[in-house]
Amino acid sequence: MRLSRYYAPTLKETPAEAEVISHQLLLRAGMIRKLTAGIYTYLPLGLKALNNVAKIVREEMDRSGALEILMPAVQPADLWKESGRWDFYGRELLRFVDRHDRESCLGPTHEEVVTDLVRHEIRSYRQLPVNLYQIQTKFRDEIRPRFGLMRGREFVMKDAYSFDKDDAGADASYWGMYEAYARIFKRLGLKFRAVAADSGAIGGSFSHEFMVLADTGEDTIVACPACDYGANVEKAEAICPPAGDLAPCPAAEKIATPGQHTVEEVAAFLKVPAASVIKTLLYVADGKTVAALVRGDRELNEVKFKNLLDAKEDLRLATPEEVTAATGAPVGFAGPVGLSLPVYADRELALANDWVVGANAADAHLLHVDLGRDVNVVSFTDLREVAPGDPCPKCGALLDFTKGIEVGHVFKLGLKYSKALNATFLDEAGKEQFMIMGCYGIGVSRIVASAIEQNHDDGGIVFPPTIAPFEAALINLSPKDETACAKADEIYAALTAAGIETLLDDRDERPGVKFKDADLMGHPIQLTLGGKGLARCIVETKDRRTGEKGELPLEGFFEAFA
Ligand code: ATP
Ligand code: MG
Ligand code: MG
Ligand code: MG
Fold first, then answer.
1. Is the pLDDT reported for residue 526 higher than 80?
2. Ligand 1, atom 1, residue with closest C-alpha
3. Ligand 4 centroid vs 6 CA: distance in angstroms?
4. How many Å apart are CA 248 and CA 263, to the nearest integer?
5. What integer best gives the mean pLDDT of the chain?
6. For the chain, what is the largest distance between any 2 Cα atoms, rounded to a whole number of angstroms?
7. Cα 503 from chain centroid (whole Å)
């Protein structure tokens, strides 16, 4: 590619709207341009980087046995109503009606669509497991789109969905994806860490986020310097404080007299890692645990208030109006009321004096719960948040806090969508069973920005070679000199023939401009020819990352270079 005919409009000044370095450099290097808030056009260089990331993601997904499909961006509301997410998802879901007044949305994620696909196609256990993925443009109407490609409204995601016939298979699918992700981020040349982002689901740690370590990251990671323990502080902030620090929450006393249990006891009871327990409230009805609050909990697989509803005839679900009347919280209020207790995924329940009531989500509140009869608080532990220097729950070393950017997320979904959408298969015994699902996302466009956050210097981007739009820049300092041009063409042809993607800077520009642009765009190798070097019959080389310079003979350059 010749820069004179390329479209990479570099900027000298840092655009005022760009707060973080990746956003600044993506604009300055002529890689992206903003159309409107959170929505960008990829220019040729930016698109090449994006495609390089996508290529590695695709190769590793294929290697893992996942199958690529492409699902639609526009999704019908009906499916979202079936899954229950139409009411819940909130304003990140961009909704609209088409000309026939059919409610629709722009897909922020594809659990509904893929489950709908699979429920119509898969009938037998023989067709399982299956893992379907796509690399596709998502739309989320983020409240604060910012930092360029880091948090867009429109962005490119790889999303995969696994369907298994049993739990062991679902776990294998999960860990298969976990390993594929580790390979992907390694190949991309990123410093990353997989951290527990535990959903708190009973049965273990089946949600991990892959974090690129960078000071500008919006997430805080608790990481052990001595072992592989790592957790998203927001999701799993619980580290057991010394026993003396345990104190019952004053609010709990209004409800019942709590007994105190250690984090280890609660964690063992819930079969979750101690690190995911920050506050525990166990409610027991009829000897069964009804629900528990674990920090970051989104779904309590087996333990649901449903047990309670099933057990007590006089209990019923409250309507949103009843909740509003009782709590004064407006309908649509999504936060917790009183003590919050997430029960079903994405729903909140709270316990008040004589009844259990929750935030105003449909089917998330119970009326007429009689404490003591129906529900007992059997355990209450109020923990402080983990702080740097706390002991690692795994090995006891002192924990560090670092900032990270979430570039990937693997999640064991269990039966959530297969139940809601009735995705079943016939097992070996001919019995109908729900498929067990997992979902796995990678922020393909966010990775481009994260790579720059991690790899840049005063001169600009220092792309990891696997992401770099071009491997080499070939700078011709004497574009008006025929010999120089002929030599440049020769070298360019040899590099291209060898599969080394090269950007030949043949512009009629000052050397300083050319060097600056090459640095800014971040090509891993710079080769300079012309000027004084031409007289000495050499090509100058520069390693963008180390700045190390060298010389190679013009005659037989390619042999020497290779
Ligand atoms: P975040 O916590 O940053 O909002 P998320 O947890 O909502 O992300 P997921 O639903 O887990 O995102 O989506 C999978 C991946 O998609 C994320 O790990 C992230 O890399 C990417 N992603 C999510 N939202 C955005 C966005 N607004 N812009 C760019 N990439 C995004
Ligand atoms: Mg989000
Ligand atoms: Mg997140
Ligand atoms: Mg996530």
1. yes
2. 406
3. 37
4. 13
5. 80
6. 95
7. 32
Residue with structure tokens 């990270």?
A: 404
Q: Which atom of ligand 1 sits closest to the CA of residue 108?
A: 10
Cα–Cα dist 80/412, whole Å: 20
Residue 88 C-alpha to ligand 2 middle, in angstroms?
14
Helix-then-strand count for the chain, H and E? 16, 31
Q: Please tell me the number of the ligand nearest to residue 135's CA.
A: 1
CA–CA distance, 135 with 159 (Å, rounded to integer): 7
Query: Does residue 348 surpass a pLDDT of 70?
Result: no
Q: Which of 520, 383, 554 lies closest to 24, judged by CA?
A: 520
Per-residue pLDDT, 275: 53
At residue 368 the predicted structure's pLDDT band, cuts being 50, 70 and 90, is low
ipTM of the complex in this document: 0.99
**Which candidate, 239, 236, 232, 234, places its Cα nearest to that of 195?**
232
Residue type (1 letter), 72: P
Residues with beta carbon < 5 A to ion ligand 4? Answer: 409
d(CA 209, CA 230): 10
How far apart are alpha carbons 470 and 526 in whole angstroms? 10
pLDDT of 369: 58
Residue 544: strand, helix, or coil: coil
Tell me the CA–centroid distance for residue 339 and ligand 3, in Å.
23
Given CA atoms 561, 455, 23, 182 in this order, what sign does their dihedral have? Answer: positive
Atom 29 of ligand 1 has which residue's CA nearest to it? 151
Sign of CA dihedral 359, 365, 367, 371: negative
Question: What is the predicted pLDDT for the residue at 399?
Answer: 84
Q: What angle do CA 505, 508, 509 make, to 5 degrees?
A: 80
Q: What residues line ligand 1, using a CB cutoff of 6 Å? A: 109, 140, 142, 151-152, 155, 157, 406-409, 441, 443, 445-446
Cis peptide before 391 (omega within 30 of 0): no
Residue linked to tokens 């990331």: 53
